[in-house]
Amino acid sequence: MAAVFTAVALLVWARLGPAPLAAGFFTVLAGLALQANAAWAHSLDTSVQAWVSAHRSPVAKADASAVFGALGEPRYVAVFAVACGILIAVEARSAIRSVVLVGAVGVGVVIEQTLKTMVGHGFPSGHVMGTATLFGLIAVCLATGRRLAVRATLAVPVLAGVVFMAFLAVYCGAHTISAVIGGTVLGAALVALGTAVVFAVAARPPPVRRPRTTGTAVRPRAVAA
Predict the structure, then answer these.
(1) Which of 31, 61, 155, 219 sits at 20 to 30 Å (Cα–Cα) from 94?
(2) Is the link from the previous residue into 211 a cis peptide, with omega within 30 of 0?
């Protein structure tokens, strides 16, 4: 399922660009939010949690909960986002990418909290959303204008980080599988939207600098006969 989802996303990206892909992810998120309390979603969450509970130990659960709580601490996430934004702004010699990075995480928090109030059941997972948005946009900002090999290399830690956070969320029982999927989709939508902004700014032509004028006309010298 994950492989098919990723393949479809890459196909849309290649053919239409990041902006339509962001619209598609937000549409999927809206559909998941409407179905979060449906019988099939509840059955899926119950089945996955029952399997996880049967294959974990109390010690492993406690360790996973501690790591999950530490990684999702809002103070750490905020400091990390601001620090990465500053480094990216210095590297790109522009504050636009830094604003996009920090702004996307902030927008994601607002959407996440709004959906949790409306839907309930911890949907979507803020930990997974934050990881996907932060890591994804850091990779986008660093990969813009670079070779395909560099972009592919930067994608590996992003996928690993999201999968690791999603695993911890389900393993320690902090979130259901449907909430994790919702957080992943929201993060992907924000990454695609932020990428569209970064690409639009990068495609703008540089400003034309006009030569300075003193305001006083230079008179030609008279030529002696």
Answers:
(1) 155
(2) no
